[in-house]
């Protein structure tokens, strides 16, 4: 009887430990979604709603929405494709589809056509929460 209880508890612990996926809370949790420059956008772009989130790790506004953005990306349920780009060396990152006026910025494409840019934490989060 003790062996059976121990076996059941072991199985429960294994499922609890490995079955629970940690919800991302930082931009770095999405390493596979990071792109280096604007030329890469053309190679990863998909049909439908496609987003490029441009941010800086040193930007207070970007940091202030980091946890919420990470969760929104996690829960997107494949409703859209999103990639992240770090603002590091603007001169070597190529040319964005519209003049970049700051970070955080969300570049919105639909069916491979640039539609608009959302600028600042309020606009970025408003858009993300509505999609």
Describe it.
Strands 1-3-2-4-5 form a five-stranded mixed beta sheet. With 131 residues, it is α/β, with parallel strands linked by helices. The chain is globular. The chain has one domain: Glutaredoxin, CATH 3.40.30.10. The longest helix has 18 residues. Helices cover 37% and strands 21% of the residues. The chain contains five helices and five strands.
Topology, element by element:
Layout: H1 2-19, E1 34-35, H2 38-44, E2 49-55, H3 60-64, H4 66-74, E3 81-86, E4 105-110, E5 113-119, H5 121-130
Instruction: Report the CATH architecture.
Output: 3-Layer(aba) Sandwich
Helical/strand content category = alpha/beta
Alpha-carbon Rg, integer: 19 Å
CATH homology superfamily name: Glutaredoxin
Number of helices: 5
* Strand tally: 5
CATH C-level class is Alpha Beta
| Tally of individual domains | 1
CATH topology: Glutaredoxin
What pattern of helices and strands is seen along the backbone?
HEHEHHEEEH
Please list the strands of the largest sheet in the order they lie side by side: 1-3-2-4-5
| Multimeric organization | single chain
Q: Give the termini distance in whole angstroms.
A: 52 Å
Q: Are there runs of 5+ residues with pLDDT below 50, and where?
A: none
> Beta-strand percentage?
15-25%
| Helix share, percent | 25-40%
Q: What gross morphology would you assign?
A: globular
- Please tell me the overall pLDDT: 88
**Biggest beta sheet attributes:** 5 strands, mixed
Index terms:
alpha/beta, 5 strands, five-stranded mixed beta sheet, 131 residues, Glutaredoxin, 5 helices, 21% strand
């Amino acid at each position: 009887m003790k062996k059976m209880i121990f076996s059941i508890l072991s199985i429960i612990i294994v499922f609890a430990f490995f079955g629970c996926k940690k919800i991302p809370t930082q931009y770095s949790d999405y390493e596979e979604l990071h792109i280096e420059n604007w030329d890469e956008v053309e190679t990863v772009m998909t049909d439908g709603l496609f987003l490029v989130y441009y941010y800086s790790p040193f930007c207070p506004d970007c940091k202030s929405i980091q946890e919420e953005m990470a969760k929104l990306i996690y829960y997107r349920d494949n409703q859209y494709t999103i990639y992240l780009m770090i603002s590091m060396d603007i001169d070597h990152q190529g040319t964005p589809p519209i003049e970049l006026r700051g970070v955080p910025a969300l570049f919105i494409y639909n069916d491979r056509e640039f539609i608009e840019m959302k600028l600042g934490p309020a606009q970025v989060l408003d858009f993300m929460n509505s999609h």
